């Protein structure tokens, strides 16, 4: 591997956490051959610049806090990046359960308030359900909270 390619990929990995597939793609973009790519990845792992578990943890924390994604969407995106199930599990453990529930509740209430003018209860439930599942929250959680919110609403 050329010295300038080595410097470029080192900078690429120092800038933020990367997974193996991102680094592999970047090395191919830089014109490396397959043996050079594999050697480069091995070298980055050796010096500690490339660590998939560390990447999964940072990714899960970031996507949850910044984009308020649910566990399902984070898991799906990590699988697309070819992260192992072990690393995904460890990455998801970074998400605090209480904070997760609080954000889930906040997003659900926000969506309900946005859709106040919706007359049909079925359409309302459907729109909220689709939104929350698209954000990556577990289907069972969404259904349970929706049913509880509808029951509470009927009490008044």
Automatic annotation (TrEMBL):
<dbReference type="InterPro" id="IPR053924">
    <property type="entry name" value="RecX_HTH_2nd"/>
</dbReference>
<keyword id="KW-0963">Cytoplasm</keyword>
<dbReference type="InterPro" id="IPR053925">
    <property type="entry name" value="RecX_HTH_3rd"/>
</dbReference>
<dbReference type="Pfam" id="PF21981">
    <property type="entry name" value="RecX_HTH3"/>
</dbReference>
<feature type="domain" description="RecX third three-helical">
    <location>
        <begin position="102"/>
        <end position="142"/>
    </location>
</feature>
<comment type="similarity">
    <text>Belongs to the RecX family.</text>
</comment>
<feature type="domain" description="RecX second three-helical">
    <location>
        <begin position="51"/>
        <end position="90"/>
    </location>
</feature>
<dbReference type="InterPro" id="IPR003783">
    <property type="entry name" value="Regulatory_RecX"/>
</dbReference>
<dbReference type="InterPro" id="IPR036388">
    <property type="entry name" value="WH-like_DNA-bd_sf"/>
</dbReference>
<comment type="function">
    <text>Modulates RecA activity.</text>
</comment>
<dbReference type="Pfam" id="PF02631">
    <property type="entry name" value="RecX_HTH2"/>
</dbReference>
<dbReference type="GO" id="GO:0006282">
    <property type="term" value="P:regulation of DNA repair"/>
</dbReference>
<dbReference type="GO" id="GO:0005737">
    <property type="term" value="C:cytoplasm"/>
</dbReference>
<protein>
    <recommendedName>
        <fullName>Regulatory protein RecX</fullName>
    </recommendedName>
</protein>
């Amino acid at each position: 591997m050329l010295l300038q390619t080595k410097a470029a990929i080192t900078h690429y990995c120092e800038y933020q956490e990367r997974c193996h597939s991102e680094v592999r793609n970047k090395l191919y973009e830089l014109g490396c051959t397959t043996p050079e790519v594999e050697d480069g990845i091995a070298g980055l792992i050796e010096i500690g610049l490339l660590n998939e578990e560390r990447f999964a943890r940072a990714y899960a924390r970031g996507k949850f806090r910044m984009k308020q994604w649910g566990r399902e969407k984070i898991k799906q995106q990590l699988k697309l990046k070819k992260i192992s199930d072990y690393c995904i599990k460890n990455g998801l453990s970074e998400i605090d359960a209480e904070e997760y529930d609080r954000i889930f509740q906040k997003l659900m209430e926000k969506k309900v308030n946005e859709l106040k003018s919706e007359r049909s209860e079925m359409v309302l439930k459907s729109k909220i359900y689709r939104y929350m599942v698209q954000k990556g929250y577990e289907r069972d959680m969404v259904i349970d909270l929706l049913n509880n919110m509808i029951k509470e609403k009927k009490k008044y």
